[in-house]
Design a protein that fits this description.
The protein is mainly beta and 706 residues long. It has 5 helices and 36 strands. The chain has one domain (8-705): TonB-dependent receptor, beta-barrel domain (Maltoporin, Chain A), CATH 2.40.170.20. Strand 20 and strand 21 (452-463) form a beta hairpin.
Length: 706
């Protein structure tokens, strides 16, 4: 592709790659944070995730490791799509997991971008077997980033344990008619004062889906059928080392490397006015490679029985490149090519200090980070170079943050957690931009007896445009360009979003570790960022804009309970989010809903473990409600139908070492149907119906532990 320096892989010198591989670099997309805890957060052996959720001063859901693997999800991205209220983008695809706004995703407390500028998500490289549990905080706090609009998801990775243990898992099956498989191995143990964890994860997955588009405008009608095959192969290696020279000091070294290769091939055939003779035939291939390197070293020092000092140094790097080729064979032959190269590097340092003072638990800290990003794109049509100077972009961001948070015990039943965070940013992407702000927060916990809690919180949150949202480079959809497949680019004039988020939650905890809860939330957002698609120079181009002032409100319901009193070993869970929104353009005064906000999201499921059989089976159904967006500022109205997915599983303990599982996913053959209405720029009014059809999958898994 002509963009890599000599003697390098994806822009990284080969000598560095060899050294990293020799040291056993990590799979873990981040580094674990072993904790030398104060007495306040030391956890007893019988202290469960539900106990932690009940007692934490800041509202938090905790998803245990056993719940993460039972439905056969191959990576953290698939897991998070099942989580109610969480918004996770889906790489290049149009289908995602809508929730109540944006959600920050962290790995061991370290913020990570959910997607890169052009391609997949780093979360796709985290195996469920690497995860200890997932924490979901529904409102921001001073301790974490102020960019917590919609809450925070923290993926807590497994840490080395003292006892030696070896794990292996192999999975194989089919998605539709395409083979898929993965292997995972892990060894952990202890040598004197050194704990270690080594792991390897490899996967080879293929998806074969179909899609269609029907356009009706005036007296004409065209239909398009597409077959899409995506093959992804990845290899990850991991090392974590924890050295404990004394009971008061602990050091952690962690490093990671993940190599990923994806090939996507699609064929589009277009038919006019119901004819069986195609007028257009386009075949497209997209090949990409990425290399992700994350490393860090951290230390924890118990200064006294009431004081803890923590520090962390880190370097994260992600390189991805790809080439797309589109060949049109009908009505005439033409060929378009596009090469993409992206590079991102993050250098950072942070430190936290915690101390008990009477009824106060005070925590303060500082965080410094520098980010560099480079986007390069080259494109051609029939051999003619169509690259512009604006397609090669270099961007830099420096950020600093300091916070102070106090957890105050008021009597036996009330905990108040006020905090304030100050953040400052400097960006250079051709022009220099400086931003700073204060982000205060306040959380209240009121206990009613042992099993009932009332929580209230308010937090100021900020969402800065990602560097990828401000780039001037244009990713072309190549030959075929329409409202559903536009060219994409950024907007260097974007302003940050600022919001106030309010939440009130009541929870009842059952004696069998179940929970029932109800909560309400409201958020007001200034300078809401939305993607709008417009005709520019005869092509549809999607870019982000500050659309106006937004409001989002709704209610969440949750229920999780054992029903063993009725049937031994039976448990059920259910949750639902009901929400609504509005957005007012500050210039025109036009009011409409926030784009692509589903009214209803819900999950329901059941698990049964018959006594004495070592056998468990269960089912889960997820429904993503549709939305109806009236005409926006670009003259586009859009409606999406709701869709649901049904997943089934069964697992059997073979002996003390081995366990087998079968997963049957997407048994409902989910179809995402989107209807758009707009003007084609020539005065004709067009109705476009796009359908994405997915297929069921079957996965067999054998796992062992020694």
């Amino acid at each position: 592709m002509g963009m890599k320096p000599a003697g390098s892989i994806n822009g990284i010198p080969q000598s560095i790659i060899a050294a990293l591989m020799a040291s056993g670099v990590a799979v873990s997309c981040g580094y674990a944070q072993e904790t030398v805890t104060l007495e306040k957060i030391e956890v007893a052996d019988d202290y469960t995730a539900m106990d932690e959720r009940r007692d934490n001063s800041i509202a938090k859901r905790i998803i245990k490791a056993s719940e993460l693997t039972q439905y056969g999800d191959l990576n953290a991205l698939e897991i998070l799509k099942r989580t109610p209220g969480v918004t996770i983008p889906d790489g290049k695809a149009n289908r995602g997991a809508p929730g109540k706004g944006y959600t920050v995703v962290m790995v061991d407390g370290e913020a990570t971008s959910a997607s890169t500028a052009h391609r997949g998500s780093p979360l796709e490289q985290i195996s469920p077997d690497m995860i200890e549990h997932i924490e979901i905080m529904t409102n921001g706090s001073a301790e974490h980033t102020a960019e917590s609009m919609g809450g925070i998801v923290n993926i807590v990775l497994k840490k080395p344990k003292s006892q030696g243990e070896t794990k292996f898992k192999g999975s194989g099956g089919v998605y539709g008619t395409s083979a898929t498989g993965s292997v995972f191995g892990q060894r952990e143990g202890k040598i004197d004062r050194l704990n270690y964890l080594l792991s390897v994860n490899g996967s080879d997955t293929t998806r074969n889906d179909s899609a269609s588009t029907l356009k009706t405008g005036g007296a004409t009608e065209t239909s398009e059928e597409r077959d899409i095959t995506v093959r992804n192969r990845s290899l990850s290696l991991a090392t974590k080392l924890v050295y404990t020279p004394s009971s008061k000091t602990k050091y952690l070294y962690s490093e990671s490397a993940t190599f990923n290769r994806t090939v996507e091939e699609s064929g589009s055939t277009i038919y006019p006015d119901g004819s069986k003779m195609p007028t257009t035939q386009i075949d497209k291939s997209d090949r990409s490679e990425s290399l992700m390197l994350w490393s860090g070293v951290s230390g924890e020092h118990r200064l006294s029985g009431d004081e803890l000092l923590e520090w962390k140094l880190k370097i994260h790097q992600l390189t991805d490149e790809g080439e797309s080729v589109s060949i049109q064979s009908l009505p005439t032959r033409s060929e378009r090519r596009q090469s993409e190269y992206g590079f991102m590097r993050i250098l950072g340092a942070e430190s936290n200090y915690s101390r008990f003072v009477g009824d106060h638990f005070i925590k303060t800290g500082i965080d410094l980070r520098r980010s560099n990003q480079r986007d390069e794109i080259r494109r051609s049509a029939n051999g003619a170079d169509l690259t512009f100077a604006s397609d090669n972009v270099r961007m830099r961001e420096d950020r600093g943050a300091v916070f102070l948070q106090d957890e105050i015990n008021v009597g036996e039943s009330v905990v108040v957690t006020p905090g304030i965070r100050y953040e400052t940013f400097s960006r250079d992407f051709g022009t220099v931009s400086d931003i700073d702000y204060f982000a205060p927060s306040l959380h209240l916990l009121k206990r009613f007896g042992q099993n009932d809690t009332l929580r209230a919180s308010v937090a100021k949150t900020v969402r800065l445009p990602r560097l990828s949202q401000m780039t001037t480079s244009v990713v072309s959809s190549l030959e075929y360009n329409d409202l559903y497949r536009p060219d994409t680019t950024g907007n260097p004039n974007l302003r940050e979003e600022k919001a106030l988020s309010y939440e009130l939650r009541y929870e009842h905890f059952f004696e069998d570790k179940g929970v029932a809860g109800v909560s309400g939330f409201y958020r007001t957002i200034n300078d809401k960022i939305e993607n709008l698609t417009r005709l520019e120079g005869g092509r549809y181009v999607m870019r982000p804009y500050n659309s106006g002032r937004g409001d989002l409100w709704g209610m969440e319901l949750e229920f999780k309970k054992s029903l063993s009193a009725y049937l031994e070993g039976l448990g059920i869970f259910a949750n639902a989010t009901v929400q609504d929104s509005s957005l007012t353009n500050t210039i025109s005064g036009y009011t409409r809903p926030i784009k692509q906000t589903s009214r209803v999201l819900c999950n329901i499921g059941a698990d049964h473990t018959p006594k004495g059989y070592g056998f468990t089976y269960g089912a889960a159904y997820r429904y993503v409600g549709g939305y109806e967006d009236p005409m926006d500022e670009s003259g586009v109205a859009q409606t999406r139908n709701g869709y649901g997915t049904l997943d089934l599983y069964a697992s059997k303990r073979i002996n003390q070492t081995f366990k087998a599982r079968i997963n049957l996913n997407n048994m409902t053959h989910a179809v995402v149907e989107t209807t758009s209405r707009y003007s084609d720029g020539g005065g004709a009014f067009v109705t476009q119906v796009d359908k994405e059809r997915s297929r069921p999958s079957v996965l067999f898994t054998l796992e062992g532990k020694w």
